[in-house]
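[step 3/7] fold_predict: job queued, chain A
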Amino acid sequence: MKSSSSPRRRKQASVVVTAVLFLVLAVLLPFGKFFKLHNSVDFSSITVDVGKTFEPPRLGVDASARTATDTAINTAIDTAIDTTTPHQSPLPKRTQNNANAKDSDTIYTQKDTIDTEKDTINDTDVDNAKDGSKKDTIQTQPPTPPPTPTQPLTRPPLNVIVFFPDDLSHKSLQDVSGTDYVLTPFLTELAQNGIRFTRNAVTTSVCWMSRATLFTGQYASTHGSLRLKCPRFTLPEYWKDTWVSILQRVGGYHVGHVGKWQYYNSGPHKLFDYSNFFEGRHWYGKLTGSEKAVDHTKIFLSERPKDKPFALTVAFYPPKAVGDSNEPGGQWSPKSSFKELYANKTYVPPYDLQQARQTLPDFLRRGIVTERYQSRWKSTLQYNEGMRNYNALVTEVDAACRQIVDELKKTKGLYENTLIVFTSDNGLLMGNHGLGGKWIAYEESIRVPLIVYDPRMPKELRGRLDNSTTLNIDLASTILGAANIDPPATMQGRDMADLYLPSEEAGAKSPVEQEPWRTDFVYEYPNTDIHETYALINERYKYIRWVTRKYEQLFDLRNDPYELNDLLLLMDDTNATTDTAASNTNKTHIDELLKELRGRYDEIRKERQSPQENGPDWCNSSLQY
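[step 4/7] structure written:
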């Protein structure tokens, strides 16, 4: 494998080489002595009236403030789990070659495939990042450099579990939006024992492209799997550079996948050591989708070779919508006991959604994103029923994650040697901007939760919030880093452990002190089926280029976190109504800003461009499952 770009990894190799040289010298001579930050124009003097300024979501909750409610919440969720129909488990044991396994335990059943295809034809993703009345009170700070160790850190490779629910809004955590909005007590505990990244984003907001990014560590325009049932990344010449294949070949890992795969069968070559693919439904007989994921995870853990490290992706289908019911909230079917937890909750949008629609470009006020809003979120009843059922499914996922981690803890030392990652494939608009679905570059669509529990993390840093610009392309390198394996040059992300682990060499600077973390990135939706879109997003501004529409937008995320005021549109309106010196000054600043952002956008796009990006739409008919 090629060496990693991580300073921490390079230092580790240097320590080993140095130690060997000293050992040789000691034997032979026993008596001898021996990311450049991007410079920005100062635009603090811009005085454009951007309308009402909304307070950004506050990230973090004082631990003492939530202690009083945690016990009651956990009790309610435990009751919701215990009072439902008992699981039909243990499921039939999976044979080594799967030849005699029953339908419930095979890679996928015919019925599952039919349901999946029906759902993905309507592959709409629903999200509403509505603020709850209780928001986090801890403001994020720049990353704190990890402490310098007194000696090099050495550790055996970690096991890995990735929790990967579908269509999870970045606000669907009680630590972000409050317990009056959603109940996720286990994820609160996981973050308290690990780290939560508050500005995490996906580079493409759609299920299948984002899932290919999870395994490859590449932008969609690079991995080329742009269409359903066309998994270019699973071809042998590309699959060998995924973290799954590398863990198997280089690290000797036992690797599994449970739940949503999106690309259906695994083609002519087997990808995982254990797999059970199921998706497109919230219920499987008497089992919910989350319960089925728990059961198959238990099978994986019980049958894994005990002399090998393991890695498992648990890809929950919930809280993604199923079907096209016209009943308010009818696309989400939580267990009744979890739904009861939300029976008395009332949800109010963060702003007037209908008024927000009037500020949208004309092309967004029609098509799929508008259709999804009108069919799922437009009325007060739709909005409230949708939010209640959606969040009940989120709580189901939270409870399932707790059950899986509790299973880890039953084996001595297993939890203490397992990297746990919780994140999602994309966010959801859920009525914000008067839109539904995902796909586009607005915050609610691209921001997803990210919590990492890493047993290597110094105790004094656990429970920290980090506002670094982390991306889903970083997940693959992070997983390989936990296995002490350098990522291949094909991966385009960076090991996120650089943000919280000290250097491997005594007295050395931390990785982010040696090589600063990124402060901007490019978002891409390279397909034209909805709107081909690219965006440059930095710590303050978002520049969006709607390619097929030849349209641009510019938002000041610091002063306009809901992206309701397009600065380019506002400047046009201002210039049409006034000719003051102030407006001319503002226009000059905006023009300079736009020039800078366009230049940076072109620079990153050129760096990331793939040879096949401008080629024909790739799809190998032999891989259409």
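[step 5/7] annotate
Residues 118-136+159-497 form a domain with the Alkaline Phosphatase, subunit A fold (CATH 3.40.720.10).
Confidence is low (pLDDT under 50) at residues 19-66, 84-144, 146-153.
exit 0
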